[in-house]
Design goal:
Helices cover about 30% and strands about 10% of the residues. By secondary structure, it is an alpha/beta fold. The protein has one domain: TIM Barrel. The protein has an 8-stranded mixed sheet. The mean pLDDT is about 95.
Amino acid sequence: MHATLPLLADTDFPPLARARLETLQVNLGYVCNQSCLHCHVNAGPTRTETMSAETGRQVLDFLHASGASTLDLTGGAPELHAQFRPLVEGARALGVPVIDRCNLTVLHEPGQEDLARFLAAHRVAIVASMPCYTPELVDRQRGKGVYESSIAAIRTLNALGYGVEGSALTLDFVYNPQGPVLPPAQAKLEADYKRILGEREGIRFNRLLTLANMPIQRFGSMLVTKGQFGAYMKLLREAHRDENLRTVMCRSLVSVDWQGYLYDCDFNQMLGLALRVAGRPRVHVSQAIGRDLEGNPIVVRDHCYGCTAGQGSSCGGALA
C-alpha cells in the first residue's frame, strides 16, 4: 500500500486551535468483517489490533473527568472488540450518550445475535455505513452481498424502534462518494435515500450524513495507484471554504487509538500524527485525565482540506 503522509506534509492549511471538548471518539481496533474500498482505517478481517481492558478503563476515567458530552465508538467494526460493551455500559452509567459507528452487516456475525437488542437497551445512537441506495454500488464499494445483508439488519433495527418517528432510538446513514469527487448536497441526497429506500425496501432512518473520502490509507493508496492523487488534492484545495473552519470536528473532538494515545481526529490517528501537549511527541489517555485541552494547537496537514471543501465534512456529516 502506498504511504500518503509524505505527499501531505507540505501544507498551507490554516492554523487551528482546540475549543471545548464535546466528543470523545475511540477507535477500538482494526478488526472488521469487511474491507471497504473507501476505508481510511485499512481495517479488515485479518487485522488483530484491539484495545485492552486496562486501556478501556482509562478511557472511561478520562471521559468522566473531561466532561465530554458524547462517546463515539468506531473501528474496524467496534462491536467485534471485547471492550465495546464495557465502554457502552460504562458511559451510559455516567449518563453519557453513545454513538456506534456500525457497518450493519456485523449484526449477522456469529456471537452478535443479541447485538441489536443490546444497542436498543442502552439507547445507543447508530451511525451506519450505507454508501448508496442501489445494490450494485453498495456491493462494489463494500463487497458482494453487503447491500442485502445491510437491508436485513436495518429491518431488524426498525423493528426495535430505530429510525422510527417518535422513537428515541436514532439511526443515521453515512454516504461516501464512489471515487475522487466531493459529496453531493446532503439535504437533497437524504430526500432521495428516504424516498427510494422507503418505496423499494420499506425501511426507515433519521438522517443521511455525507462524508468526503480522505486521501489517506486504502483510499489514498488507490488514488496514487491510479495517478489521481494530485488531481483529487487540487479539487479539495480549490473547494476550500474558510467558514467551515469554525465547525471542523477536530476543534471539539479528541480521538483515542486502540492503545490509548490521543489525536486531534481519526484521520490524524491513521497518519500517526499525534495530539501534542506541552511539547510531548504523543500523549496517552491516562496522562490526560483532568487536563484541559482547550486552546491546544491542532496538528494539520494537506488532508485537512477534505474537511473544509465545499459543504464541509465531518463525522457528523456536512458542516454547511
